[in-house]
Specification:
Length: 245
C-alpha cells in the first residue's frame, strides 16, 4: 500500500517506529487546457504516475518506505485563462497550501518529503521553489538543466505544453483520456515558450498557441510515454535517496 491517505492513524505512527525511513511524495498538478486533444488534468496525471512508479520500484526497499500523499491538484495557471477549463489559484494560496501541508507533516516527524510537479508556468514553479525552501522539504525541479537534459528533445526545446512529450505520457498512463483522432490532425507548433516569456508574452494566445498547445502532439506514442516515465522515475528515485541520506 503506497497511498498515505489509505493508512490508518496507528499505521502512520508505526511508520516512524519502523526500520525503513518514511519518504512522502507530494504530487502537484494543475487544471488547465492541454490542446484540443489532451485532458485538463494532464500535469496531475504525470506527477501521480511518476510517484506511483517510484513507490512501486521501491516497494521492497530495505532503506526507505515511500508513500504518496493526496495530490495537490490546483496551480497558478494564467497562461490558459482565455480557454475553457483553466482554474488558477493565486501564488499566495499555493504557497500557503505547500507550507501548511508540509508543516503539518514535519511537525509530526515526517521531514522527508519530495514535492513532484509537472506544471511549468514560471509563477507556479517560482512559488513551489520558495514554499519548499521555506518548509525545508525537497523539490524535484524538472526544468533545472541537469534534470531537463535527461528528458526528450521536445521538452528541452521549450515547446513543452501538450505536445509530443506530455501527450505521450498521458497515452502511456490513461490512453482513453487522449482524443487520438483530433491529436493526429494537429500540426506541429514549434513555440519556444521560455523565449516567448522572456519577450514578455504572458499567455498562450500571445505566444501563438491559439489551440493551447505547442510542440508536436501528433507524434506522441505510448512507447515514448513509457520511456519518459522510466526517466522521470529514475530522477524521482534519486531525489528520494537524497532526502533519505
Ligand atoms: Zn502540462
Amino acid at each position: 500500500m503506497s497511498a498515505f491517505a489509505d493508512l490508518t492513524s496507528p499505521q502512520v505512527a508505526e511508520l516512524l517506529a519502523g526500520p525503513r525511513k518514511p519518504v512522502l511524495l507530494l504530487p502537484v498538478g494543475a487544471v488547465e487546457p492541454h490542446g484540443p486533444h489532451a485532458p485538463l488534468g494532464t500535469d496531475e496525471i504525470i506527477s501521480a504516475g511518476m510517484c506511483a512508479r517510484a513507490a512501486a520500484r521501491l516497494a521492497d526497499d530495505p532503506e526507505v518506505r515511500v508513500l504518496v500523499l493526496p495530490t495537490l491538484n490546483y496551480g497558478v495557471t494564467r497562461f490558459g485563462a482565455a480557454f475553457p477549463g483553466a482554474i488558477s489559484i493565486s501564488e499566495t494560496t499555493l504557497h500557503a497550501l505547500v507550507v501548511d501541508v508540509c508543516g503539518a507533516l514535519t511537525a509530526r516527524g515526517f521531514s522527508r518529503i519530495v514535492v513532484v510537479n509537472n506544471h511549468f508556468e514560471p509563477a507556479h514553479v517560482a512559488t513551489l521553489r520558495k514554499a519548499t525552501a521555506e518548509a525545508g522539504v525537497a523539490y524535484l525541479d524538472l526544468v533545472r538543466r541537469r534534470n531537463a537534459g535527461r528528458l526528450t528533445p521536445e521538452f528541452q526545446s521549450g515547446a513543452c505544453h501538450a505536445g509530443q512529450y506530455e501527450t505521450s505520457l498521458v497515452l502511456a498512463e490513461h490512453p482513453a483520456l487522449v482524443d487520438t483522432t483530433t491529436m493526429a490532425t494537429l500540426p506541429a507548433e514549434p513555440v519556444d515558450m521560455p523565449t516567448a516569456m522572456a519577450d514578455g508574452k504572458a499567455d498562450f494566445l500571445a505566444m501563438g498557441m491559439d489551440r493551447a498547445y505547442c510542440g508536436d502532439p501528433a507524434a506522441a506514442t505510448v512507447a515514448e510515454g513509457q520511456s519518459t516515465f522510466d526517466v522521470l522515475t529514475d530522477l524521482l528515485v534519486e531525489a528520494i535517496r537524497e532526502v533519505a541520506r
